[in-house]
Amino acid sequence: MAATLSLLKLPILPQKPHHPQSKLSVLSNPTKQILSNESINPPKLFTETIHHLKSASLPLTTLALPFLDTKDALAVNGEFGIFEGRSFALLHPIVMGGFFFYTLWAGYLGWQWRRVRTIQNEINEVKKQVKPTPVTPQGKPVEAAPSPVELKIQQLTEERKELLKGSYRDRHFNAGSILLGFGVLEAVGGGVNTWFRTGKLFPGPHLFAGAAITVLWAAAAALVPSMQKGSETARNLHIALNAVNVILFIWQIPTGIEIVFKVFEFTKWP
């Protein structure tokens, strides 16, 4: 009670008038200026907003990318280190040059496997030309030298045996799988490397031919299930697609050499 009475005797301090304030933080002067001009010049508002976002301490990647200039997204000026250098840039032409010769090797294996399948049909056709063996009146076969047709059958039979020893079917399948997997990977990697070095891609013959080669690899591989079921149409289409693939590969070589020269001109080791 005594404490309560003593508090009542204290002089009452004058209180400042209470003005309701917004819970939002006070806007900075630049922001106020932008808001004041919003109804007057919307394009200027957008430009100044972008300017203030860029000057913020937060990384630009944490902001909304659509509001930034496109030049801020370029992957150049050493941001990726060795990935923008000459060593990484030369990896693509070296690997793809190897894939060109590997494509020819895979084509050879595939043609040999096709020969294994077709040679039996050829043997069956030649057998139809064999004349009946003459017999004596007693019914015994007359001994005679092999006819040219029989020699042809023996030759084809021996050839087929040698082809079977080569395991061309499995070797061709493995080669095609490697081309599909690593070829697509390196084809995409070439475009990524160009972006690393320059910050953009260059639509042109080399890029379009490379994209077509990648699509043809996938299309040829997609025909394998039908080929395994014995579809001659799928087999012929498979051969045609890969033939076009090789032609595009050859046509792409000069433009690839051009790009290699530019790599040496505009990049440094490593």
Tell me roughly what share of residues is in helical segments: 55-70%
Rounded mean pLDDT is 77
Q: H/E order of the elements?
A: HHHHHHHHH
**Low-confidence residue ranges:** 1-40, 56-75
Tell me the span between the first and last alpha carbons. 87 Å
Outline: elongated
Sheet of most strands:
none
Task: Give the count of helical stretches.
Answer: 9
Q: Which structural category fits the helices and strands?
A: mainly alpha
Portion of residues in beta strands equals under 5%
**What's the Cα radius of gyration?**
39 Å
Give a short synopsis of this structure.
This protein has 270 residues and is an all-alpha fold. It is built from nine helices and no strands.
Helix/strand layout:
Blueprint: H1 2-8, H2 29-36, H3 42-54, H4 86-127, H5 148-165, H6 168-198, H7 205-222, H8 224-228, H9 232-266
Helix pairs in contact: 4-5, 4-6, 4-9, 6-7, 7-9
Descriptive tags:
single chain; 270 residues; mainly alpha; 9 helices; 66% helix; elongated
